[in-house]
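JOB MANIFEST
job_type = single_chain_structure
chain_count = 1
residues = 440
[input]
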Amino acid sequence: MGIKVCKFGGTSMADGNVILTAAKIVQADKERKYVVVSAPGKRFGADIKVTDLLYQCSDEFERGDTVAFAETFAKIRARFTNIETEIGKQLGMKEALDEVEKEILGGAGRDYCASRGEYLAAKIMSAVLGVAFVDATEFVRFNEDGTLSDTTFDLAAQVLSAHERAVIPGFYGLGANGKVKTFSRGGGDISGSIVARGVMASLYENWTDVSGFYACDPRIVNSPKCIPELSYQELRELSYMGANVLHSEAIFPVRNAGIPIRICNTFRPTDAGTYIVKTSTRDIRDNVVTGIAGKKDFTAISIEKSMMNSEVGFVGKVLSVIGHRGISFEHLPSGIDTMSLVIDNEYLKNGVLQEVVDEMKTLVKPDKIYVHENISLVATVGHGMANNVGTSARLFKALSEAGINVMMIDQGSSEMNIIVGVENADCAGCISAIYNEFFN
């Protein structure tokens, strides 16, 4: 008999009725022993996620706006007391919320504040299921630099072995300073993966509001194909490029242990979903491309200089310009006398772009330097691409016929992906054209 870990996302915890649905899913399978939950998400389009309200509370507290803080926290209080009412039993929400408010006003910190949505949601799910509540601070540990500590997995195994069944809040753990620390947004998926690794689960089920991983964004292409199975590596590529069904870092805790992940739909629990595995058994002849994903708002800084290839340390000098500013780059396509840095626009605001360009001109004295702003990166991903002649030709033919101008091309050494840079305005059209070529 195996052990399954279930992680329920924000839409699966949005109100009392949905929480009861999630609880029934857990109870329907005796192997589902450990449950990780997110904070309540949106109940409808114009709703506000609890985590966003908590961040707002933190900002209001920091600037000393006690009136605004009280109004925002009242909204959070209403969400959880309404959930309690919908579930129809006393869950201790008033006392728990009083304690949370007291701690925030006592200066517990921004991460503590942001984490309380998951904390309270886990308390609720624990009571509904009648199983133990285990706080994530008991085993999730972060290093001083904010990275996940390797001690986390042994601690998880030790702590969770004392509980045959348990509910754990996602998204946070304990920092090196002994205070609550959160992952990046969406990090509850990582928490679920940590629990799965700690108990050496046979399967990590990630319950959300979609029936699996789609070949592209359904907001761009109507009813795209659902992928039955993909590899950890394919998931990593697609998630990083904007396919946000699962956090891109969630695979790392389970990958080495070979624990498969299944994406499931809380609202359609009988759907097959998508399995994410170490090595996909999918027949690549069915489709050489697994999926397409895109992200907007990048800037490409392109440098031209004759004999660049013979100038020792040239690339190092260029990278030092962004390195000492704490700026990372997404891609580094290059030729014999050219190279380009593709950087997220977030790093280049408030005059930083001009500072970077000016320093590059001074440091490496290029013949020419160009800046292309508002670029989208679109990745076409699939293990089958490396073994099929003509994949690139099909892709660029499709873009040409759709009138999409390609500003940049980058292909990974594994030949598992092809990334193109296009104008932001062409992002959706680019994804649609590639999808139609390979899936229709």
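[summary]
The first helix runs from residue 16 to 27.
The longest strand covers residues 291-304.
exit_status = 0
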